[in-house]
Specification:
This protein has three domains: 2-225; 260-510, pyruvate-formate lyase- activating enzyme (Alpha-Beta Horseshoe), CATH 3.80.30.20; 518-641, Arc Repressor Mutant, subunit A. It is 36% helix and 17% strand. Strand 25 (611-617) and strand 26 (625-631) form a beta hairpin. The relative contact order is 0.08.
Length: 648
């Protein structure tokens, strides 16, 4: 049988789901090949070299290009049913493209791709001629291409069984797709790692498939029925993902000339935080929120086998969140291995946990920072504060862990005055890795915003962009849509975001790993801080007396009252140095001075931007607020990040 990964998926990563299915099918003796159509699409894109074509592909697969990227295959799917909307959409596409780097050329190539989409689809279909079952995966931006291919296969070979599966089929979406697109024979929904191979075997043997979990099909009366498969309980029973076809395509398309082979694995499913406190905007996991993880020995064996088979070093973990007990046992086991991991983690991790990540070769993380305002983070149910997010960035910088995150804005009921406060604080952080973007929050299917919108003052409708790729009434688009929009509950306009957006743009423009730094080192009893941050440096500070102790105490966020208590308990410390050396700025006070007037003693640290502060409610249910502070400098001997993750 054949499995297909269509555009517009992430060409740098093969689909884990398809690789797992192939692994299980091959283990059961079923001949199977995975076609990476998204990589084959590289040959249709502009560029003289594989690198140039891949750069174009990477841009077109990004979310800002929706719906234009999916629309490229819409005529092949719907014939002329959407042609009346095309002139206006083309104008919007060109207007959008003018605001993006190389956007105009990409827009014209996307229009050309639309004109020859039928031929592109035919070339993919040609490779499927020898397979009686064709399974097509679809997640996020792959629906239109997946459906267009399914239609073409059924037109050319009516006797082939065409099956759709993936995240775009979760919940009721799969049934809706089966109802509206009659060329689909079946849809699979939920965690069907074993159910789909069982279906293939049963069909080949002529046995009934009715009882297979996750199978959505048409009855004799034409009605669609079936429910998503339940979450798997035993992840250790899963097959080892089979990436042979991807590795062959990776080399065939010349990606190995500039890209490091990166493969996807998983050590867990679900989310242990979401089980207890589902983040309001998160639509991941559908019916599989319950957290399950592989046993350490099983995961260790899987890593070793995948490395042995494919010679891969970079492993992109598909987990929604790293298991807490992996910080110790599993990452310790990875120390001797020459591998690099990407993981999603919760951001309120400790120094010890970040050190464990670095020692265990977790060199790239997505911590779900989302914001630096505790008030807005509370609206998300993130279970973390803004100052804790800053602490993670500083610890990651110190230990050489690369961080990927965005700042989300536009939450229902958010405190808009927080943005002015953050705009003033952001310049202090420019020695830490910046967010990749300032992004409006989206309302995703399966999220609390979507499941119980009235609780948040929302009235949701499908994202209007879906009308460009589905010629369906709004109530039917709502059945297949993953993203929704609203006019309720979101602050009107974006004037309150301008100052913060400008600071984030400046941060992105100025940040470099080597030249934008804020470091400290000990010199006798004093602490020397060197600052090269734009707007602050170049400056050198000499901290004397109790000032170095304040910096040490603020290694993690602490209320200022705790510093006062520490000063009172310190007794007599050596007197501050009499004078700073030439070119140094002295910050000096003793413990007694700090205990008597902490605010005055902290003033020069604030002025120099050496501490980050936030006012927080310390105890649940309390009304009184306290100011928390965090030291921002990192040790002079901080570990450089592995930037190879970002090279392509």
């Amino acid at each position: 049988m054949a499995l297909v990964q269509p555009p517009f998926g992430s060409g740098i990563l093969p689909g884990l789901g398809l690789a797992l299915l192939k692994g299980e099918l091959v283990a059961r003796g079923v001949d199977c090949r995975v076609f990476y159509w998204d990589l084959d699409l590289l040959e249709e894109l502009p560029g003289r070299t594989p690198r140039e074509r891949f750069q174009a592909f990477s841009e077109l697969t990004s979310r800002p290009w929706f719906p234009f990227n999916e629309w490229a295959f819409a005529r092949a799917l719907h014939d002329d049913r959407l042609d009346h909307r095309a002139p206006a959409l083309v104008e919007r596409l060109r207007s959008f493209a003018r605001r993006r780097r190389n956007g105009r050329a990409l827009a014209e190539h996307l229009l050309a791709l639309r004109d020859r989409a039928d031929a592109v689809i035919d070339r993919c279909a040609d490779g499927l001629v020898d397979y009686d079952v064709v399974g097509i995966g679809t997640t996020f931006l792959q629906n239109t291409a997946a459906l267009a291919l399914a239609r073409r296969v059924k037109q050319r070979w009516p006797d082939k069984t065409v099956v759709l599966g993936g995240a775009n089929c979760d919940g009721g979406m799969g049934a809706a797709l089966l109802e509206h697109f009659p060329f689909l024979d079946n849809v699979f929904s939920g965690e069907v790692d074993f159910a789909f191979p069982a279906f293939v075997q049963a069909r080949a043997a002529g046995r009934s498939t009715e009882a297979i979990p996750g199978l959505v099909s048409r009855g004799a009366d034409g009605r669609v029925g079936g429910t998503p498969a339940p979450p798997l309980g035993d992840l250790d029973a899963l097959a080892i993902p089979d990436y042979a076809d991807y590795v062959e395509a990776f080399h065939r398309h010349g990606l190995d000339s500039f890209l490091r082979l990166t493969l996807s694995l998983e050590s867990s499913r679900g989310c242990w935080w979401g089980e207890r406190h589902h983040c309001t905007f998160c639509g991941l996991n559908a019916g599989g929120m319950a957290f399950r993880r592989k046993h350490p020995e099983r995961f260790e064996a899987e890593v070793d086998e995948v490395v042995r088979r494919y010679g891969v070093r970079y492993l992109y973990m598909a987990d929604n969140i790293l298991a807490v007990d992996y910080f110790g046992s599993v990452l310790e086991r990875m120390k001797p291995r020459e591998v690099e991991f990407f993981y999603e983690i919760k951001s309120n991790v400790t120094r010890r946990q970040v050190a464990s990540l670095a020692a265990g070769h977790v060199s790239y993380v997505k911590p779900g920072i989302e914001h630096f305002s505790s008030a807005i983070l509370a609206r998300m149910r993130k279970g973390v504060t803004g100052i804790q997010n800053v602490a993670l960035l500083r610890l990651a910088r110190e230990h050489g862990v690369l961080v990927d995150y965005a700042v989300l804005v536009g939450f229902p009921g958010e405190e808009v005055d927080e943005y002015d406060r953050l705009a003033k604080e952001i310049p202090k952080l420019t020695h830490l890795r910046p967010p990749v973007a300032l992004t409006p929050v989206e309302f995703h299917r399966f999220s609390p915003y979507h499941q119980v919108p009235a609780q948040f003052g929302l009235a949701l409708r499908p994202w209007s962009e879906y009308a460009e790729i589905y010629p369906l009434p709004e109530d039917e688009i709502a059945r297949v849509a993953y993203v929704f929009e609203t006019s309720q509950g979101v602050p009107a306009g974006h004037a309150h975001l301008r100052a913060l957006l400008e600071q984030l743009r400046r941060w992105l423009a100025l940040y470099t790993e080597s030249r934008c730094t804020l470091t400290w080192h000990a010199e006798g009893a004093d602490t020397i801080v060197d600052d090269t941050r734009p707007g602050f440096g170049p400056r050198r500070y000499r901290l004397s007396g109790f000032a170095p102790e304040v910096l040490r105490l603020l290694d993690e966020p602490k209320p200022l009252v705790a510093l006062s208590r520490a000063a009172c308990a310190a007794g007599s410390l050596p007197a501050p140095a009499a004078a700073a050396a030439p070119g140094e700025t002295s910050i000096a006070f003793d413990a007694a001075q700090f205990a008597a007037d902490p605010d005055r003693c902290l003033a020069p640290l604030r002025e120099a931007g050496l501490i980050f502060e936030e006012s927080l409610v310390r105890l649940a249910g309390a009304s009184a607020r306290e100011t928390y502070a965090l030291a921002l400098p990192v040790p002079r001997d901080f570990r450089p990040a592995n930037l190879d993750w970002l090279v392509y």
